[in-house]
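Researcher: For the annotation table, I need structure tokens for FAD assembly factor SdhE. Please keep the output clean. Sequence:
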Amino acid sequence: MLQDASPEARVPDAAELRRMRWRARRGLLENDLILGRFFERHAQSLSARDWHALQSLLELDDNTLLELVLGQAALPPDPCNADRIRVLRLLRTA
């Protein structure tokens, strides 16, 4: 399953992708729009590391996620941030 994904893990299959899209539905319309476009444009080209980073970003509350995507907040120091930053850049271009 994707929940236990390590950076070397595989990308999700079609069923896991559908679950991830459903989980990405947010309370803020802005996040819904951004994440919807993100999935349309990038879902098929993401690496396993990207999927893992996206999953960790989706664990954030709506306002924090939106602030990160808009560049109004910074990620706290963490060795895994390189992957999260790459996904945030993709979210910003979605």
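Researcher: And a one-line annotation?
Model: The chain has five helices and no strands.
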